[in-house]
Specification:
With 275 residues, the protein is α/β, with parallel strands linked by helices. The protein is 29% helix and 15% strand. The chain contains 9 helices and 10 strands. β4, α2 and β5 (104-109) form a beta-alpha-beta unit. α3 runs parallel beside α5 (141-152). The longest helix has 14 residues, at 196-209. It is globular and about 55 Å long. Bound molecules: iron/sulfur cluster (SF4). Iron/sulfur cluster binds at residues 20, 22-23, 27, 30, 32-33, 78-79, 110.
């Protein structure tokens, strides 16, 4: 969607899919839905169809056109592993990520059973790339811990947790095989409360397990007022990234042309389509 993002833990967002449906309590105040529905019915707007799920093949090759390496949040306005996104389309997204290793991709899902199945089969090459980080959302124990188990049972080289919105004390978290943890409270109208003790517990477990910890925000109705200081400081830790030189424009155009051929059944389709 945007070459620049205001999300604290990324540089850019890339949305080859738009729209989603709710699946668990963490979705109750989905920011993507609120944003998208504001533009339902506005002719020509990318969210003219509100939050209805649709594929946007014209966005598939977008990262190859960016002239600087970025950290890219994949599908900030959707969930790549939603049931209605065809396997073939998910594979195409993975292929683009594999073919542009100068970017670092962050793929986050609440549909962890499908993540587990596909990373163990047709996405195995993408799973093993160090520039593609695979994550699950955890808002509470009931929904979050099964996702954590699914993630741990993938061959992903880099695995992360987005614990946002944090809705309860998670207690002991099994961080074995996890490479990054993001924590945040819910923000906006009707935001559910977060407690400092819940956050400190996660931070201390990350420190004990040597897992980079990123504290995104306290949230609340006035997110900017609440800020993101935890015990007087910010926590902006990330997994190590390997710098990768970016090919020049001509080489990127060549790769783009090759991908257009490989993905011709998708990129040749109309601008966007619902399923
Ligand atoms: S899975 Fe994510 S994008 Fe989809 S409704 Fe839930 S919070 Fe929104």
């Amino acid at each position: 969607m945007a070459e620049i993002s205001h999300i604290e833990w990324t540089d850019a967002t890339w949305n080859p899919v738009r729209g989603c449906t709710k699946i668990s309590p963490g979705c109750a105040h989905c920011y993507a839905e609120t944003f998208a529905e504001r533009f339902r019915g506005v002719p020509g707007h990318p969210y003219e169809m509100g939050f209805d799920l649709r594929l946007v093949p014209e966005k598939l090759l977008e990262p190859l056109q960016w002239s600087r390496p970025k950290m890219v949040f994949v599908n900030s306005m959707s969930d790549l592993f939603h049931d209605d996104v065809p396997d073939r389309y998910i594979s195409a997204v993975a292929q683009v990520m594999c073919e542009s290793p100068w970017h670092t991709y962050q793929v986050l899902t609440k549909r962890s059973p499908r993540l587990r199945t596909l990373l163990g089969s047709q996405l195995i090459r993408a799973a093993q790339q160090l520039n593609i980080w695979w994550g699950v959302s955890i808002e509470n124990k009931r929904y979050g811990f099964p996702r954590l188990e699914d993630l741990k049972n993938t061959p992903a080289a880099i695995r992360f947790l987005s614990i946002e919105p944090l809705l309860e004390d998670l207690g002991r978290i099994d961080l074995e095989g996890i490479h990054w943890v993001i924590v945040g409270g819910e923000s906006g109208h009707g935001a559910r409360p977060i407690k400092e003790s819940w956050v400190l517990s996660i931070m201390e477990q990350c420190q004990a397990a040597n897992v980079p910890f990123f504290f995104k925000q306290w949230g609340g109705v006035h997110k900017s007022r609440a800020g993101r200081l935890l015990r007087g400081r910010t926590y902006n830790e990330f997994p190590a990234t390997r710098p990768h030189s970016i090919p020049n424009r001509r080489e990127r155009d060549t790769r783009t042309a090759q991908l257009v051929q490989h993905l011709s059944d998708l990129v040749g389709r109309k601008k966007e389509y619902a399923l």
